Amino acid sequence: MKYIVSLIACLWAVVAGAQQQQQRRPDPTFMRKLQMAEFAISRFYVDKVDEDKLVEEAIVGMLEHLDPHSTYANAEEVKRMNEPLQGNFEGIGVQFQMMEDTLLVVQPVSGGPSEKAGIMAGDRIVAVNDSAIAGVKMSTEDIMKRLRGPKGSEVDLTVVRRGVAEPLKFTVKRDKIPILSLDAAYMIQPKTGYIRVNRFGATTGEEFKEAMKKLDKQGMKDLVLDLQGNGGGYLNAAKDLANEFLGPKELIVYTEGRAAKRSDLTANGKGEFRKGRLVILVDEYTASASEIVSGAVQDWDRGVIVGRRTFGKGLVQRPIDLPDGSMIRLTIARYYTPSGRCIQKPYGTGTDYDRDLIERFNRGELTNADSIHFPDSLRTRTKRLNRVVYGGGGIMPDYFVPIDTTLYTDYHRNLVAKGAVIQFTMKYIESHRKEITEKYRKFDSFNERFEVTDEMLAGLRELGEKAGVKFDEKQYQTSLPLIKTQLKALIARDIWDMSEYFQVMNTTNESVLKALEILNSGEYERKLK
């Protein structure tokens, strides 16, 4: 009962605050109605009820009648949801994969507690504080709970290491572990840098500046910014990134809602990449904060957008913290690009909204530019060059790149889904790590000379058969170039890092190749002259 009273107090404050702006007093009738219903059920219902569960389900039921992004999260979900955006969590600091019910260390975080304690790539952690975690069918979530803990606390690990007869014992002192926003930053060709941002978190702006400094020293003049698959994050992080490209007082985005007055975010003109050529890569999973950056760059004719129409998530959520650590994220406004385009795509029922990407594919929008149609009512123009752009949901790129379906087959999808590709890579690295690191002292040498052999491919096929993936010669030959690229990229990732992974994968990424073509052919200047 105390929880429902506290909840009503929180909601009352939100409603009162919003309606105070409109100079109206809140009607308390609906609040009393909710409180009386909960009181009656808890006191008089024939059977004992879980009051917390009833309240949570009531909140969820209310939010389901709003928009797809007004949501409720319990205390544990809030903690998990915030970690990737806050930029750190507390734990032992390892990247790992589960292989045959055993935690296999892919890489210890550089400078992290596990590396300091002596944990190495390829180690298998078999016990935590003398409790076995290997061969006991334990979920990944349960294992992570045992490994994570408050900064400064200690955890005892038992490790099996290849070439060492007896298990090794380590005591690791937990610490803050960074969660990086940037997957990759490297020179993709002379004078052209490439940066891939996977989310917009608390440290994105700082990470981006550091990456830019590194690339500047290597002679970068142009930039390919990869936001493919980036689902968004913090608004301030989007502002920080867009600020790097725009001039003083240029509008980045504005928000407006029924109870929320218009609020403008503008650039301060102190960004460090306001002159070089800029290409931003997007796709159908690029959303929210990523769309803010893409829309601002496009509207000011600061760069070109390459790929496919973005997701169309342009709603502003206000977090409402509840007494037990749970949270309501309530939509209070919409995002608009500098030219006035609404980023948010239309939404009706949740089913229609969730099926939008499938229907876009079925209509041919992801494979054929001719299948994309916008009504004239959604037409607007850019701020400098007066180019035509369209609103109505998502950011439409300047250059369309169809989704590549030529290399994907059911056989390949099943290999990935059954974990055969990852498992084979992990086993191969476990057996050949020393050989690879001695033969290829640097990644550039590996990237130039390493080739996936027929013997490796035979091993993958065999592992696939054991996992229940029936071999199909025709589909195998179709997907073979992709399979080879993925295997090489995964080996590069596990020996070096994610940046090297993308250096390999980007050799077959059609949007990346299109970006380089635009920069190298003079098309960029023709588009933005």
- How does the overall form come out from the CA principal axes? globular
Low-pLDDT runs: 12-16, 18-23
**SS content category:** alpha+beta
Helix content: 40-55%
Regarding quaternary structure, what we see is: single chain
Radius of gyration: 26 Å
Question: How many DSSP H or I helices?
Answer: 19
The major β-sheet equals:
6 strands, antiparallel
**Count of DSSP strands:** 21
Give a description of the structure.
- This protein is of the alpha+beta class.
- It has 19 helices and 21 strands.
- β15, α9 and β16 form a beta-alpha-beta unit.
- α8 (235-243) runs parallel beside α9 (289-299), α13 (420-439) runs antiparallel to α15 and α13 (420-439) packs across α16 (473-495).
- The protein starts with a helix and ends with a helix.
List keywords for this structure.
single chain; 529 residues; alpha+beta; six-stranded antiparallel sheet; six-stranded mixed sheet; 19 helices; 21 strands; globular
Short description:
This protein is α+β, with helices and mostly antiparallel strands.
Task: Give me the secondary-structure topology.
Blueprint: H1 2-21, H2 29-44, H3 51-63, E1 71-73, H4 75-86, E2 88-91, E3 94-99, E4 102-108, H5 113-117, E5 124-128, E6 131-132, H6 140-147, E7 154-160, E8 168-173, E9 175-178, E10 182-189, E11 192-197, H7 204-217, E12 222-226, H8 235-243, E13 251-256, E14 263-266, E15 278-282, H9 289-299, E16 304-307, E17 315-321, E18 327-336, H10 350-354, H11 356-362, E19 379-381, E20 388-390, E21 399-400, H12 410-417, H13 420-439, H14 443-449, H15 454-466, H16 473-495, H17 498-505, H18 510-521, H19 523-527
Parallel strand pairs: 11-12, 12-15, 15-16, 16-21
Antiparallel strand pairs: 1-18, 2-9, 3-4, 4-5, 5-6, 5-7, 7-8, 10-11, 13-14, 13-18, 17-18, 19-20
